[in-house]
Amino acid sequence: MAFIPTLPNARSRSVSRSAVCMGTPPPASSIPPTPPISPTVADGSRRSVLLSLLAAPLAAAVTAPAPARADRTAAATRVATDRYLPRLKEAAATMRTIRDAVEAGDMAAAKAAIEDKVFNVKVRNALVLYAGVFSDNYVSSRTAAMQSDVQRMYEALGKVKAGGADAPEEMEQAIKAYMAYGRRGLLPKEVTDALSLKRVQLARTAGLVGVA
Questions:
Q1: 8 Å CB contact between 102 and 137
Q2: 94-126, pLDDT tens digit by residue?
């Protein structure tokens, strides 16, 4: 029996043509398989991308110029001086009152001034807080010295309050401590100038005649 080839009719040709135009994918058997991606390679690629993203801002931070650090101590000193100066002046005024009372032998008046609550609490706190202005992230040597001056001043005044023959000498120590505080704290000169000690008068008050 002879083989008779058959030609596609018009319908079969239109179906084939439409399949090609619509992008019908070829049979799966004709597509070569995609080689699998190694998990190690994929993880390494992701890790590289993440590391590069993280390193970018760090590199920018290192290479960028650091902002200039403001001198906060100088600025804070100006502000604190304006804030605490009234109390610091009050401390000097009270010290003069105590000194004059001791020189006059009026220990009752000296004791009353020393025990004054404003002088004992508000003025003392102002002295301590103003000393802290000269520190930044740690207690500086100046702050420590000024706080020590405050402590020595009030300890000496406590001995003055107790009275006795050594009251003038303790008053002198209290004034010296405050004067040292003023120098370290850069207080205005008029605050401390009036606290000059009249040693001869104190000596006479204590009965120590002849002390120069």
A1: no
A2: 999 999 999 999 999 999 999 999 999 999 999
